[in-house]
Amino acid sequence: MKRLLVTGALLISSLSYAQVTSWDNSPLNYNNSPLNYNNSSLNYSNSPLNYQNSPLNYNSTNGVYDNNGNRIGYETQSPTGVTNIFDNNGNRIGYSPTGSRQ
């Protein structure tokens, strides 16, 4: 029984290694951080006040929509290649790190 428990513990601990993310994908990486001005809605290119990002711009090509077709936000790309996702009010709700999009 003890051997089974030890084997199970080793198996679980070896699987936890797979959950480690790379530095390029980490939110602690400054390139991905909301503290980086390039990823902030205070930057005009990311701002909801920029007409390109506005929900009032019906020709906008960067809108993010839910499954019902309602616009929930917009996405922008920083100069470092990080794709930022903002809600319609300019709150950053997600990101896709450099090089992870296909």
Radius of gyration: 19 Å
Helix share of residues? 10-25%
Average residue pLDDT? 82
Number of helices: 1
Sheet of most strands: 4 strands, antiparallel
The largest beta-sheet arranges its strands as 1-2-3-4
Give helix and strand order, one letter per element, not per position: HEEEE
- Spans where pLDDT lies below 50 across 5 or more residues: none
| CA-CA gap between termini | 47 Å
Total E-strand runs: 4
What is the general shape? Answer: globular
SS-based class: alpha+beta
How much of the sequence is in beta strands? 15-25%
Ordered list of secondary-structure elements with their pairings:
Layout: H1 2-16, E1 63-65, E2 71-77, E3 83-87, E4 92-96
Antiparallel strand pairs: 1-2, 2-3, 3-4
